[in-house]
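Morning!

This is the sequence you dropped in the shared folder:
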Amino acid sequence: MIRLLQIEFIKLWNNRASKVLIISYFILLTLIALISIIKFPFGYDVKLADIGIFNFPYIWHFNTYIAGFLKLFLAIVIVSMMANEYSNKTIKQNLIDGLSKKEFILSKFLTVISFTLISTVFVFLVSLILGLIYSDYNELSIIFSDLEFLLAFFVKLMGFFSFCLFLGILVKRSAFALGFLILWQIIEGFFALLFTHRVFPNEISEKIMALFPLQSMYNLIKQPITRLQSVQAVANQVGEKISLNYQVHTYEILIVLGWTAIFVYSSYTLLKKRDL
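The structure's back. Tokens below.
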């Protein structure tokens, strides 16, 4: 497996566009720290860090949610990785050199796992450092609670990157694969509107949409803004009560793991049947 990973990372590092995107992705993850210095004029300047977004354990929820939006950078890398295999005919050469189609897909999935694991560890370290600097709570029991959001972040990225891998193999060209990704997002949005307003009540519609791939990935980490104590305090003052379930649920993780398995197996099936 190490040999397969080495082959993939050599390919990626020798590709200038991929190298720039990977470096940019991790730089942007680091720049989450800059959120701490953003100020809002509420009669006097208020830093976002002062309203508790970097408090433990809330920071695990907030940072994994924000970092999730940056996954498109690595999605482009993964889609381009497959497109380059076809355009440069390296996939054919790898198979001629003795790499089986199963090993080829395994090498790509190992790359997905590597990106996912490195991203998760990176977000963990950035969040830990920011929390130790800004958090009002520094007890170990509080610091290391709610770490399930990191697990959710890992599963979310793995599922999304596996989807991108499948699209890269299905479409062969990075631009079309990314276009298909956007199209699929629109299709899921259309079904969400259709189910909600035309077919089913809201609760049933939400349960059905939770089975769709992109929506199931999004559901793993709910928006954290209304969880802030300051936001809830304002809501209480105007007579509104916010009672949302922000926790990570096992069934949501299982749904995304199921889609991950489907995408990886479908990628292998496509490659096995395709004449290269």
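Headline: The first helix runs from residue 2 to 13.

More detail when I'm at my desk.
O.
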